[in-house]
Amino acid sequence: MRVWFITGASRGFGALITEQALDAGDAVVATARNPQTVTDRFGNHPNLLAVALDVTNEAQANAAAEQAVKRFGKIDILLNNAGFGLLGAVEEATAAEIEKLYATNVFGLLKVTRAVLPHMRRQRSGLVINISSIGGYVSYPGWGVYCSTKFAVEGLSEALAAELEPLGIKVTVVEPGFFRTDFLDESSLTVSHSAISDYNETPAGAMRTMAAGANHAQPGDPARLAKAMIKLVNDPNPPLRMPFGSDTVAAIETKNDSVAKELGAWRDLAISTDFPKDTVTSA
């Protein structure tokens, strides 16, 4: 029986993956700010431990990991799922909005990861799954600050994968596209209140309108993603990056092609800054 530790497990992807993991016979430590919301949804399942966790609270993160190990003896899979969005042009985002976003999406993920990794290192096994976004690979107008948090998650995940591989621990960063969750609802999305009229007719302004119209009309099926996650963890060699959704795959292919073309056009200037190969250095 594998043991999952899932943040943000009361709704959205977290709740759906919790359900799939329990159905697969696994145990789940399902964390949420209010653990009663987890119990209300799943009842008193014998393989479920609902734990209070605000990911911005390091002491709570350490305590939650200890509770998990005390109850189930180990943690096999850490799913860093907790997070929220911020919609607005980069200039429109206030310092308070940015700090709050980073506190959860980046620093919270780090606090939980640091709390769980000592247990995985002791086991010499485990899988860390960090939920990123297509916005962690391609940034979009109106989502710049949010995307920057997910870019941070991608960079952390790449380094973690290399650091933890010798210790028997794997890392996968998951990149969902637009899925029909409550991500665009007020419960998961903050819209910057410092709107600047100059941006109204720009792509950043258009994104505000698009986001409102796209809510609950996204192409991705959250239930299918939850089932796909079980297939992912069942594979002995999970990928470093796992995109989900045809929109994500298309965006990655488009960016990769664009970066390759731009690099080709500017390659000569890029490499012109090296010392000449025949330069002889002496002490």
Content-based structural category: alpha/beta
Q: What level of helicity do the residues show?
A: 40-55%
Number of distinct helices = 8
**Class in CATH?**
Alpha Beta
Characteristic terms for this protein:
8 helices; two-stranded parallel sheet; 7-stranded parallel β-sheet; alpha/beta; 9 strands; single chain; Rossmann fold; globular; 283 residues
Report on this model:
The chain has 283 residues and is α/β, with parallel strands linked by helices. The protein has a single domain, classed as Rossmann fold (3-Layer(aba) Sandwich), CATH 3.40.50. 48% of the residues lie in helices and 15% in strands. The strands form 2 sheets. It has a 7-stranded parallel β-sheet, sandwiched between helices. Strands 5-8 form a two-stranded parallel ribbon.
Short description:
The protein is α/β, with parallel strands linked by helices and 283 residues long. Helix content is 48%, strand content 15%. The longest helix has 29 residues, at 95-123.
